[in-house]
Amino acid sequence: MSVPEAVEHLCGLQAQTTTSWYAGLWTRLRDFTPDQVVDLMLSRKLVRIALMRSTIHLVTDRDCRFMRPLVQSVSERSFAGNWGKNLPGVDLDEVVAAGRQMLEETPLTFAALSQRLAERWPGRDGPSMAQALRVYAALVQPPPRGLWGHSGLAVHTTAEKWLGRPLDADPSIDTLMLRYLAAFGPATPNDAGTWSGLTRLGEVFDRLRPKLRTFADEQGRELFDLPDAPRPGSDVPAPVRFLYDFDNLLLSHADRTRVLDPQRRTLLQPTMNLVRGPILIDGFVEAAWRAEASKKAAVLTITYAARAPKKLVAHVEREGRELLEFLAPQAGTKEVVTGE
């Protein structure tokens, strides 16, 4: 697949970090280079915007316009339960209209937007008003934020201004759920709800039932999938794969035991403020990794859940060396080590 094809197949990559999600594309695509993403972001073909679960995702320009209206209720629900409580009696329509004009004139950080809104509405909570823009104005984070090898403040403007086109007027939730299954099926409506943050999806799946195949999992729960979706048998080998810290594979199902045994969750707990990425061995999280790099040296540390055979360790380390070469090609020395 090309980068846009892969991003659309996954219904976007969770991308609230600035760059860790590049590894999610590296582990999925042949001959992937960061420049491919950089070029697409600069040409506005890829954007970062709050979508599923009201978290930042990397999506194509057309998926931005398609998906954002469908998950609007998720952001509204989150806002009402948090920031909205700080704005009693405030006319949100006026705030959003004024903030939209500010952001479309010049992309701003939330801090700067908060200050300008507070000046317009003295005595009102500026950060809460800025969050109202995030919810009701569909804000994207334009580059250089998110560009490989670059740094920049998280500034915001509206998706319509950045893309030069309005959001879709009548996107189909049925289409979104079919695409979810194409990426993450077989799955339950509850899985789709965990992935998206949306509720009452059982009604959607019942409506789609004639187009789908159904199965039962080990607990007897009904699973849905596309009729022609690939479903490899249990005897098909699954190669070692290094995932990134917020990889879609771990966040797109209510039941994560399909890839993560509860006893393995401690592997992914942050260590010294460093978040570790999962490593799939035969399709399950059995190890974790973290990388530290400078111009002089780069080290990738692998932590196993249990003692692993030497042959398997060699395989994991070989994949780790390739990842380290991707992450830190300019480092003078590169080393893959085993940690605790």
Overall mean confidence score, pLDDT: 95
Give the oligomer, counting copies of the same chain as homo and different chains as hetero: single chain
β-strand amount? 15-25%
> Cα distance, first to last residue?
36 Å
In the residues, how many domains can be counted? 3
Kindly state the number of beta strands: 12
Largest sheet, strands/sense/barrel? 5 strands, mixed
Q: How many distinct helices?
A: 14
* Order of adjacent strands in the largest pleated sheet: 8-9-10-11-12
Rg from Cα = 21 Å
Amount of helix: 25-40%
Helix-strand sequence: HEHHEEHHHHHEEHHHHEEEHEEEHE
Structural class by sheet pairing and helices:
alpha+beta
Tell me the overall shape: globular
Given as residue ranges, the uncertain stretches (5+ residues, pLDDT < 50) are: none
Main attributes of the structure:
single chain, three-stranded antiparallel sheet, globular, five-stranded mixed sheet, alpha+beta, 14 helices, 340 residues
